[in-house]
Amino acid sequence: MPLRVFVAGATGAVGNALLPRLREQGHHVTALVRQAGRAEALGPVDGVATADVLDQSALREALQRARPDVVVQQLSGFRDVDVTEGLRRTAWLRDRGTRNLVSAAVEAGAHRVVAQSAASAYLPEGHEILDEEAPLWTDAPGRWGESVRAVETLEDAVLTCPDIEGVVLRYGVLYGPGTSYASGGAVHALVRGSALPMVREEAGLTSFTHVDDAAGAALAVLTEAEPAAYNVVDNEPAEITEWLPTYARMIDAPAPVSLTLEQARGQLDWLTVHQLTERRGATNFRLRETLGWRPSWPSWREGFADLFGLWPS
Description:
CATH architecture of the domain at 4-174 and 208-234 and 282-295: 3-Layer(aba) Sandwich
Radius of gyration: 19 Å
CATH class of the domain at 4-174 and 208-234 and 282-295: Alpha Beta
Strand order of the largest sheet: 3-2-1-4-5-6-11
Shape: globular
CATH superfamily of the domain at 4-174 and 208-234 and 282-295: NAD(P)-binding Rossmann-like Domain
Number of helices: 11
Distance between the termini: 32 Å
Number of strands: 13
Order of helices and strands: EHEEHEHEHEEHEEEHEEHEHHHH
Largest sheet: 7 strands, parallel
Structural class: alpha/beta
């Protein structure tokens, strides 16, 4: 049945992949942009709303006009800023922005909110692949701790509101068109410049999510999923010592530098060392079993190859 869908974060990498899928399914789509000029970057939609999710009054008016059945949150604050500033902005959007969206969605008569979260927020303990029952690392240090606590606030706002059905999608590390892993992106530049090393003694696990699979999961949970948190990741969590050299070869970059843990701690910021050495992977078992969802790109290997034109059409 066609729905009225309101998409916040419509101009981001996942939003760009999601909008045409929603239209193909016959849904009426309203895209939220913060500035009117950003509407030019959108594909075909049924309506455009201009408001900042941090402006509760303007956001409430936008949703009242759109009258959505479902509100989809795909917000990120990493565009055109460094990692530290991106984490700060994204934390604000996840915390205050999501709470504003949920409140406005309830007032506008929506029955469901689907929100982007992060599988990278799990507490990195043990060597198991983590499921949705694993704790979030809310007492992590520094800016990362602020980011994880914002994830906790986001999920609490979406999942505990008694007046709406809430679904949280915990994406892995996003890659694909429009992300930092695409040509010209931040990770692409780091690897090309031999500025993203590996650590010999320890290897963190990365669970990847192609933006097409993130969009596909958001589409799948519009109506069918029970209110809950779901990991949206591929089938192959990978150590950085495996995926990074493979990625480097695919983009014709130099082989990554290998550091000792002591060298890494002396040369790199804390968050980068954590990601290189401690981050744990996640399982998509809940989403696969409850909805029959399958990633279009089961492994980052094929997804990276397709991104750089190395996979058969």
